[in-house]
């Protein structure tokens, strides 16, 4: 299992996945502030996505930040000029007369300026959101790619771990969900500059009012921070249910499940399950939203009160003659905007802190390190393999499993031999193959290849030397040719090699009967797709193993859907084509198994017997018993 492991104290607290437990409740204030430390790496990633776009949207925001105060100040000048004109007693009958007399020049110029500022601000706003959108999308794409790359490196065991699946689910959401964080963060910078510009303007008139405003807004800020944290922990705690919800929804409406859903009439059951889960989620969210709305109203009311106290004070000073009418509009406007801005900033700050908590999910996913990796001074995999593999007292237990899937297993897989594995369901055959391909590492004992521990070899080389087709092989909804080509991805364009692989696995007849041959899209998922029978899919999957020039070939029961003759032929060919190769085959059909040079009989994770078909029959143990059972079925 990859680390960080809950038992070992991992990196700084908030990114520690062990913290997950703590999230059943609300994250503490400290955790919330700690989460802010995710912002610098977040910003670095945005910068790395596109330095030019980042600079442009930030630069334009700075310019736009100064426009509100400029607009308000021009507004004040307009009113003062109008009041001056009225007070000066200039009498004008028509607009044309006043215009020609030049009395309205200043007023007109000011109006034009304010118009220019309004248009400019709007234009800047649009350019900024355009830039943000581009940057966000680029960022989302880059993060998604990083997520896929990282996921590709993780161990198989990690994928089977529900905790990791939850974390992956949350991380995946964050690649899209955090787009707004970027705009918000940049918006905060812009608003801060605007606030400073207003504050400087106001400082000249009534400095202590600014303090009053700030104090009045604190309750709203605290409330917002509190509810953001609650929202996050709700979201966090509900990850498993949300995945279940997603799963049920998919089961209810997908090509893969449609057949069974219809036959078993499962749709009502699925819908009921979905409703039940969705309803619980909805209720929890609604309760939170209600409390948030209620408290938000009360706390925002305090902020409004502060604003009106300040407004009253300015009105009083104007009546007293300290301020002009223009000053009154400027001050009242400034205060209103300042209040909105400060409120926005404080709330925004707590939202940013809240969103930064979500970044933990993304970053903590990136922190998971695969355990199965090449060592620093990895040895090259021998080519050709000289002696083969040795299992030396190997034991393996799946994480959290009570029973050992394999225990005390010792045997040799000699270079060049064809070995068959038999045993009842759950005996450990697939697990053995997974260990051979280093999809897992043994918990006990070791596996040697030409006398060296498998863990000392270069992992990529090792995997490239082994061609495995599992019983639950993947049906790629790609073309028939691509379905084979994925077996050796760098030879995907080598049509001849693909056709040769198809001939070997007898998939060529299947493919040639398709309307578009190797270019035929297969699977039902896409419009042009043609579906195949189970056995036809298997032949194509087996061709994948022949695509690679692997030294070790493993067929883990991918022939179950083949008819008896086809399986016999596939294995016959497999044996012939594995002449100079080491091969392992798993099958429940004794007609195929007996072709092997040697047969291992596994039972409950242990090696029970080994030998040739004849030897094992002569021994009269489980093998003979199972063989007889099958043979009797055909008599
Ligand atoms: N991913 C897994 N996580 C936990 N336990 C597993 C996992 N895969 C297999 N097991 C358990 O390990 C044991 C061995 O399983 P394995 O798949 O190796 O058996 P097998 O011999 O290949 O069986 P079959 O003939 O049914 O394919 C079984 O008890 C099974 O329940």
TrEMBL record:
GO terms for cellular component: plasma membrane. Residues 55-354 form the ABC transmembrane type-1 domain. GO terms for molecular function: ABC-type oligopeptide transporter activity; ATP binding; ATP hydrolysis activity. It comes from the Bacteria. Gene3D superfamilies: ABC transporter type 1, transmembrane domain, P-loop containing nucleotide triphosphate hydrolases. It is a multi-pass membrane protein. Residues 1-15 have a biased composition (Pro residues). Coiled coil: none annotated. Residues 389-629 form the ABC transporter domain. SMART domains: AAA. Keywords: ATP-binding, Cell membrane, Membrane, Nucleotide-binding, Transmembrane, Transmembrane helix, Transport. The chain crosses the membrane at residues 195-222, 293-316. It is found in: Cell membrane. InterPro entries: AAA+_ATPase, ABC1_TM_dom, ABC1_TM_sf, ABC_transporter-like_ATP-bd, ABC_transporter-like_CS, P-loop_NTPase, Type_1_exporter. Its main location: membrane. Residues 1-24 are annotated as: Disordered. PANTHER family: ATP-BINDING CASSETTE SUB-FAMILY B MEMBER 10, MITOCHONDRIAL, ATP-DEPENDENT PERMEASE MDL1, MITOCHONDRIAL. This is ABC transporter, ATP-binding protein. It comes from Lysobacter enzymogenes. The lineage of its organism: Bacteria, Pseudomonadati, Pseudomonadota, Gammaproteobacteria, Lysobacterales.
